[in-house]
Amino acid sequence: MENEPKITKTAQKTIAILCFLFLLLFMKYKPYEHFLYGDSFLKEIFILYSYVINTTLGWVHESGHGVCYLAHCPDFFTALNGTLFQLLFPFLPGCICKKRGDNFGFYIGLFFVGFSSQYTAWYIATAHEGLYVSASNSFLGVDGYHDFYTVLSAFGLVGYDWFVSMLVKIAGYALMFYATFKMVILAWIEERE
């Protein structure tokens, strides 16, 4: 495993810059809060990139529910499993990178866990709307059950969905900032040592 090629410094710098720019644009546009229209080239690229990542995570989320449908899991775990899959999808490859000595790859995975957490926070914030999600607010475009209404109800926290959402959003931003900071350190600072 020691002989496996590592990502080059140029690639690290490029990825670190792209993640930093994406983080700034994400904070400005918050694509989960409203539909975006591109009025500049940079915004168009951001919308496309955000859409691809979000759609990928959406399918991963739904496949987590699918596993539980096939395995006949309890409702609580079925509701939670979509989000678990969505968060583990970028985290596990990052952990594999870390185990192989590629810390930069680990931070890329951590960045996307933070990104995924932002959409999870938005979803949690809508739990008070009830057990059912309308087709207009659903990733799949059909009516369905609201995962976090089920999860938060189990703990008596539906009325505090805004607070739980805020905590998850803060944690998501913290992960994105931390991962970007560490990528910059690995790409530029460690190069000089």
| Number of DSSP E strands | 2
Query: What summary fits the major beta sheet?
Result: 2 strands, antiparallel
* Rg, Å, rounded: 18 Å
Tell me the β content.
Answer: under 5%
Taken in chain order, the helices and strands follow as HHHHEEHH
Percent of residues in helical segments?
over 70%
Mean pLDDT across every amino acid position: 87
Number of helices: 6
SSE blueprint and pairings:
Blueprint lengths: L8 H21 L11 H31 L3 H25 L3 H22 L7 E2 L10 E2 L1 H8 L6 H32 L1
Antiparallel strand pairs: 1-2
Helix pairs in contact: 1-6, 2-3, 3-4, 3-5, 4-6
What's this model, at a glance?
With 193 residues, the chain is mainly alpha-helical. The protein has helices spanning 9-29, 41-71, 75-99, 103-124, 147-154, 161-192, and strands at 132-133, 144-145.
Structure write-up:
This protein has one domain. It has a two-stranded antiparallel sheet with strand order 1-2. The chain has 6 helices and 2 strands; from the N terminus they run ααααββαα. It is globular, with a radius of gyration of 18 Å. With about 190 residues, the protein is mainly α. About 70% of the residues lie in helices and about 0% in strands. The longest helix has about 30 residues. The two termini are about 25 Å apart.
Keywords:
193 residues; mainly alpha; two-stranded antiparallel sheet; globular
